[in-house]
């Protein structure tokens, strides 16, 4: 089976993404779809990738810290 060369980096990225997670094999499709959704929003530019990553972190309860201020350790 031949794979278009443009999809190879996406598949390699997905493999690395899944490998870094503690994922039940039953959830591979769900995780893969989430990764593809991220890529669809992140592809236009590095700015979009960071913007989407920040949105996802915020949705998970992470707090944005400014590099210009002193951070309180919690």
Structural account:
By secondary structure, the protein is an all-alpha fold. Helices cover 55% and strands 0% of the residues. It has a domain at 29-61. The protein has helices spanning 8-19, 28-42, 46-59. Helix 1 (8-19) crosses helix 2 (28-42) and helix 2 crosses helix 3. The protein is extended and about 40 Å long. The chain starts with 7 loop residues before the first helix and ends in a 15-residue tail after the last helix. Residues 1-20 form the signal peptide. Keywords: Signal.
Give the overall shape: extended
Give the CA-CA distance, first to last residue.
52 Å
- As an assembly, this protein is single chain
How many strands in all?
0
What class, by secondary structure content? Answer: mainly alpha
Radius of gyration: 16 Å
Poorly predicted sequence stretches spanning 5 or more consecutive residues: 1-5
Largest sheet: none
Query: Helix count, per DSSP?
Result: 3
Tell me the β content.
under 5%
Q: What is the percent of helical residues?
A: 55-70%
Write the layout of secondary structure elements.
Blueprint: H1 8-19, H2 28-42, H3 46-59
Helix pairs in contact: 1-2, 2-3
């Amino acid at each position: 089976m031949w794979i278009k060369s443009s999809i190879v980096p996406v598949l390699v990225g997905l493999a690395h993404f899944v490998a870094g997670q503690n994922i039940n094999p039953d959830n591979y499709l769900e995780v893969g779809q989430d990764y593809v959704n991220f890529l669809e929003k992140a592809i236009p530019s590095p700015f979009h990738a960071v913007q989407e990553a920040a949105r996802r972190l915020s949705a998970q309860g992470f707090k944005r810290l400014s590099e210009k201020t002193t951070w309180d350790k919690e």
